[in-house]
Request: fold
Amino acid sequence: MRMRMMIGAAVLVGLSHAALAAEPKVSKKGPAKSAVETTLPDILKKLLLSIDADPDSGAPPLKVKFTVDLYDDDLDKPAFIWNFGDGGTSKEKEPVHVFKKPGDYTVTLRMEDTHDRVGNADISISVAVPEE
Reply:
C-alpha cells in the first residue's frame, strides 16, 4: 500500500492580485531617486512538496524508500532534512531507511533553499508486531 501526503499547498481562493503583489518599502537613503526594496508575501516563500513512502507499513525490519515531488523548478542548492521518528535522520534527497522496532512513526521532511524558502511535509509509517 502506498500513501502520498502533500503539505504546504496554498489555496488561493478569493485573493486579489494586490494581495499577491510584493509590498514596496522605500529606503530613506538618497534624494528623490531612493532605492525601492520589495519583500515577498509569506505565501510565496513556501516550497511546495509532497513525499511518498514505499512501503508505508509492514513487519520489522521494514525497509522504506522515501521520494520527494517538488512543485518548484527554481531551486537553488536545496537542503533536505529528514527525521524518521525513531532517532534516525538523513540529508539525502530520497533516502532509504530501515525501521527495526514495531510502532507508528511520523516521518518529517524539512526542505530549505538559499532564497530563504522553506517547505515541510510528513508521512506516517506503521511497523506492525511480527506474527508468530
Observations:
- Confidence is low (pLDDT under 50) at residues 1-27, 30-38.
- The helical segments are 17-20.
- The chain has one helix and eleven strands.
